[in-house]
Design brief:
This protein is mainly alpha-helical. It folds into two domains: about 100 residues, no CATH class; about 100 residues, Metalloproteases ("zincins"), catalytic domain (Zincin-like, 2-Layer Sandwich), CATH 3.30.2010. About 45% of the residues lie in helices and about 10% in strands. A three-stranded mixed sheet has the order 1-3-2, covered by helices on one side. Strands 4-6-5 form a three-stranded mixed sheet. Strand 5 and strand 6 form a beta hairpin. Helix 3 packs antiparallel against helix 4, helix 5 crosses helix 7 and helix 7 crosses helix 8. The chain is globular. The termini are far apart. The N terminus is likely disordered.
Length: about 240
C-alpha cells in the first residue's frame, strides 16, 4: 500500500510538473509582446515600449515611455513582475527590492555574449581620477550627509558627446561614475566638479530606489545641492 501510494503521488507530481512546464508562457519576441506581458502582470502607466542594447541603463521610463534592454525578453516571470513594481511600486522599499531583482538577472543579447567590459582609466589620467574620488567624498559629506556609497570615479577617453555618466551596479559590475577626459581638457576643473555633482544626484536617485532620470525629483535635489537642474547645460569654455 505504501509503495502504491508513493508511486501514485510521484505520478501526480510528475504530471503537475509537466503541466506547469507546458503552461509556462512563451518568452516575448519583441517590444510589443513584452509590453503585453507586463500589462498582464498589472502594468498600467506605460503606452509604449522600446528595446535597447544599452547596458548602462537596463530598465528606464519617463512618462508613458518604457525602455528595456532586449535581454529581458527571456527573463522569468518574477523579473517581469519586478519591472512592473519598479515602475509603479508604492514605496521606495518596494522599488528598491524590485530593482535588485532586475539587476540580478544576467542579460544576454545579440550584441554581447557576456558581461559588459568597462573602459579603464589610463595610467596618465589616474591622478585626475584620484582627485575626483576625493571630491566625491567631500561632496558626499557636504550635500548628502555622507549617505552615498563610495564609488570609483573613472576618467573616460571614449566619452565624446556626454560630460559624465553614472552607471548603476549590476550583477557583474559595481556602480561607478565616469567623467569625460575631453570635458576636463576643454572646460576646466570647475565645470567638471559641477558634472560630478550632477552624477552624484543620479547616484542618490539610484540608492534611494528612485528612477534614474531628470524628472521632478532630480530637479528638486539638483537645486538643493546648488547645480543646474537640467539634463543638459551650456558649458562655459
Amino acid at each position: 500500500m505504501f509503495r502504491s501510494l508513493t508511486s501514485l503521488l510521484r505520478r501526480r507530481f510528475d504530471a503537475a510538473q509537466l503541466t506547469l512546464e507546458f503552461d509556462a508562457p512563451r518568452a516575448p519576441r519583441d517590444a510589443r509582446e513584452l509590453l503585453d506581458r507586463l500589462r498582464a502582470l498589472g502594468l498600467t502607466r506605460i503606452s509604449n515600449c522600446e528595446l535597447t542594447r544599452n547596458r548602462n541603463v537596463m530598465v528606464s521610463f519617463r512618462g508613458p515611455e518604457l525602455r528595456v534592454h532586449e535581454g529581458y525578453l527571456a527573463a522569468p516571470s518574477d523579473v517581469h513582475r519586478a519591472i512592473v513594481t519598479f515602475i509603479q511600486g508604492r514605496t521606495g522599499g518596494e522599488r528598491a527590492h524590485a530593482r535588485r531583482r532586475i539587476v540580478s538577472y544576467t542579460v544576454h543579447s545579440a550584441a554581447s555574449d557576456g558581461p559588459a567590459r568597462r573602459e579603464r582609466t589610463r595610467a596618465e589620467d589616474e591622478p585626475f581620477a584620484a582627485k575626483l574620488t576625493e571630491w566625491h567624498a567631500r561632496y558626499n559629506a557636504e550635500y548628502f550627509g555622507a549617505s552615498l556609497k563610495p564609488v570609483p570615479v573613472r576618467v573616460s577617453r571614449r566619452m565624446k558627446s556626454r560630460l559624465g555618466h553614472y552607471t548603476a551596479a549590476t550583477k557583474d559590475n559595481s556602480a561607478e561614475i565616469a567623467i569625460s577626459w575631453r570635458h576636463l581638457r576643454r572646460h576646466g576643473w570647475t565645470e567638471v566638479l559641477h558634472t560630478l555633482l550632477h552624477e552624484m544626484v543620479h547616484q542618490w536617485q539610484d540608492e534611494s530606489g528612485l528612477t534614474i532620470d531628470h524628472g521632478a525629483r532630480f530637479r528638486a535635489k539638483a537645486r538643493e545641492v546648488g547645480i543646474e537642474a537640467a539634463a543638459k547645460r551650456a558649458v562655459r569654455h
